[in-house]
Design a protein that fits this description.
Blueprint (H helix, E strand, L loop, with lengths): L59 H26 L7 H9 L1 H21 L4 H26 L2
Length: about 160
């Protein structure tokens, strides 16, 4: 018995295709695929697909933004501990509870929340709302750094 799969239909039509009827492109691209961080999706595949898409690999500028926010968050943690040791107080009610639980608990939860939030934003970095919140987070942490410097050297 011979298979006609993939042979040309000589009546001028498309090849005789007897593959599975499931079209892999019928489903939208998953948020996180098994190729995340090592796949080939750097951008959209079709003309005009530049926004509101998921990718597997990120631009250098996207990594710099995310890692800058993470570094500023770690710096905020260290400067907060220095401020508390100098007799200052924490004004964020959630962080007050965590500081009272211990410096390590405070650090793990603070940096852990930052990492989880940054991962969500990194996955969605090609969406307008995610870029907005990444920029907002960077601005807020920069202002926090200025505030810490003010408390340390002026107040």
């Amino acid at each position: 018995m011979e298979s006609n799969a993939g042979t040309i239909n000589h009546s001028g039509g498309a090849p005789d295709d007897r593959r599975l009827p499931v079209e892999r492109r019928a489903r939208p691209t998953p948020v996180v695929s098994r190729y995340w961080l090592r796949g080939r999706r750097l951008g959209g595949r079709r003309t005009g697909e530049r926004r509101e898409i998921y990718v597997d690999r990120y631009r250098v500028t996207e990594w710099v933004l995310v890692l800058s926010i993470l570094a500023l968050s770690a710096l905020d943690y260290v400067l907060t501990l220095i401020h508390l040791e100098a007799g200052g107080r924490e004004v964020n009610p959630l962080m007050v509870y965590l500081v009272e639980s211990g410096g390590l608990v405070f650090g793990v939860v603070k940096l852990g929340m930052t990492v989880v939030g940054l991962l969500v934003l990194l996955i969605h970095v090609r969406f307008r709302w995610a870029r907005f919140f990444l920029s907002l987070a960077l601005g807020v942490y920069m202002l926090l750094l200025i505030y810490h410097l003010y408390l340390r050297f002026v107040a």
